[in-house]
Amino acid sequence: MRNLPKECDVLVVAVKPQQIEDVLPDLGVALHGSTRRPVVLSVVAGVATKRIEQFLPSVVPVVRAMPNTPMTVGAAVTAIARGGAATERDLRLVESVLESVGEVLRVPEDQLDAVTAVSGSGPAYVFLVAEMMIDAAMKLGLDRATADRLVTGTLAGSSAMLGDADPVQLRAAVTSPAGTTAAALEVFEQSDIRQTFRGALTAARDRSLELSGIVRPPLAPASADQH
């Protein structure tokens, strides 16, 4: 790890929150005294930039990011937030890295817990919908292969239609009065699905906030010669 600052423009910290204290002290030592100041890009859930900065020399820029798993197919949406020492140049550098796997947007750091609930965990919600639709399709008599193709194709096509379109208008365009779609949507509304989604996202947001308490600050602040 001691050679990393000499080799990198961006250092990505991607560990579990509980492992931060095992990684960052060594990184701080490696960065101490180095003339090069790579951007430390953290994708660690629930750990604030201020917490990370406590382990590092004060001049080291820290940027926190929340990507999601569609990055594996180049379709991620990643939110980033800057730490105290990060400059516009640092943000642009991070954006240039993350844009290789999808879209990047900037948010205030205090919104990253909500971002985690919406887009960080969001793919799992979509996969759950796919799972439930496939199960329901098979209950209606379709074989698994047919159900898989119908559901995955429908979700992929519907996602492509979203783009900059209004989902309310798209839904209305599919829904004929007293038709089959209206019958299905009525069941969803009667089950209070909107409240279920609000509750689920709130639970994810709250868990992200809880994770921030898992990592303790250093026992003592970095010495003056490290800043």
TrEMBL record:
It is found in: Cytoplasm. It is an enzyme of class 1 (oxidoreductase). NADP(+) binds at residues 14-17. GO terms for molecular function: pyrroline-5-carboxylate reductase activity. It comes from the Bacteria. Pfam families: P5CR_dimer (PF14748). Its EC number is 1.5.1.2. Residues 109-211 form the Pyrroline-5-carboxylate reductase dimerisation domain. One of its GO terms (cellular component) is cytoplasm. Its main location: cytoplasm. InterPro entries: 6-PGluconate_DH-like_C_sf, NAD(P)-bd_dom_sf, P5CR-like_CS, P5CR_dimer, Pyrroline-COOH_reductase. It catalyses: L-proline + NAD(+) = (S)-1-pyrroline-5-carboxylate + NADH + 2 H(+); L-proline + NADP(+) = (S)-1-pyrroline-5-carboxylate + NADPH + 2 H(+). Pathway: Amino-acid biosynthesis; L-proline biosynthesis; L-proline from L-glutamate 5-semialdehyde: step 1/1. GO terms for biological process: L-proline biosynthetic process. The keyword Cytoplasm applies. Keywords: Amino-acid biosynthesis, Cytoplasm, NADP, Oxidoreductase, Proline biosynthesis. Catalyzes the reduction of 1-pyrroline-5-carboxylate (PCA) to L-proline. Belongs to the pyrroline-5-carboxylate reductase family. This is Pyrroline-5-carboxylate reductase. The lineage of its organism: Bacteria, Bacillati, Actinomycetota, Actinomycetes, Mycobacteriales. The gene is proC.
